[in-house]
């Protein structure tokens, strides 16, 4: 076994054998972006744009959006930034995009589903993102939240490309999308797995209800099996597959995700150094061993033990 100790991280997401995994920041504000860049993030794997407008009672104009996005892109000149279109609804309600009252908001009109009713809001946001990208030197990609099918992915990709955005992806956070990963990836350039919502939906356990939190454990083998499906599909298609949920912030789990074929890990800035140092202490072979053991385990505790064995 290898002990990671308190190794320093040099800011490059690489295993000790040279295998590359991008180590990226999750951000929702200019302050987050500065903190992520200062902590060594190689870019941004998830910019939660809805966090810019949580208290807006009316839709921000294209100009207001352009300025808000450019401020977040500014610290990442020459680096990749994945801008997620508005994930309104459920745990992140936006007053200007509130749906009619629903009995189960997490299963209702949220994320990209809002855009099916209001494509004009999506089109104005895509225009603002394209303008902000032109204002800065960041390598901007765009991705949609809460995509269920390949047809939805294609619907989004068509609009994003029409707005002039070249790199288009979707989040995989609904089990149906994970089970259709080949078809979903065929419609876009990359995917990013949102393990927070993917766990919520695969276990039918509300992420906001503490009483069911044990089911939402990212070490659950059933969740890891879905990640493997998506990782395998990404490898087969030669397209990047990231993880931008909380799972990516756990150093040992980061090794498992890498072994499952995930090519980038995006997390809160406070987790970057710990994950980066852990990855630098391991190899792709060991990550694959850990992944094989964790996926085959019976429960989260055994999954963690299986991942620790080669580490
Ligand atoms: C997720 O669901 O894992 C995710 C990264 O998105 P959010 O937490 O913003 O829903
Ligand atoms: Mg989500």
UniProtKB/TrEMBL annotation:
What does the record give under GO molecular function? kinase activity; metal ion binding; phosphoenolpyruvate-protein phosphotransferase activity
Taxonomically, which superkingdom?
A: Bacteria
What subcellular locations does the record give?
A: Cytoplasm
Of the GO CC terms on this record, one is: cytoplasm
Q: Which GO terms describe its biological process?
A: phosphoenolpyruvate-dependent sugar phosphotransferase system
Catalytic residue list: 244 (proton donor)
What EC number(s) is this enzyme filed under? 2.7.3.9
**Positions annotated to bind Mg(2+):** 173, 197
Keywords attached to this entry? Cytoplasm, Kinase, Magnesium, Metal-binding, Phosphotransferase system, Pyruvate, Sugar transport, Transferase, Transport
Coarsely, its chief localization is cytoplasm
Chain positions recorded as phosphoenolpyruvate binding sites: 48, 84, 196-197, 207
Cofactors, names only: Mg(2+)
- All copies of the PEP-utilising enzyme C-terminal domain together span 15-281
Reaction(s) catalysed by this chain's protein: L-histidyl-[protein] + phosphoenolpyruvate = N(pros)-phospho-L-histidyl-[protein] + pyruvate
Family in the record: Belongs to the PEP-utilizing enzyme family.
Q: What does this protein do?
A: General (non sugar-specific) component of the phosphoenolpyruvate-dependent sugar phosphotransferase system (sugar PTS). This major carbohydrate active-transport system catalyzes the phosphorylation of incoming sugar substrates concomitantly with their translocation across the cell membrane. Enzyme I transfers the phosphoryl group from phosphoenolpyruvate (PEP) to the phosphoryl carrier protein (HPr).
Instruction: Indicate what this protein is called per its UniProt record.
Output: Phosphoenolpyruvate-protein phosphotransferase
Say which species the protein is native to. Saccharothrix texasensis
Show which stretch of the intact protein is covered: 233 to 543 of 543
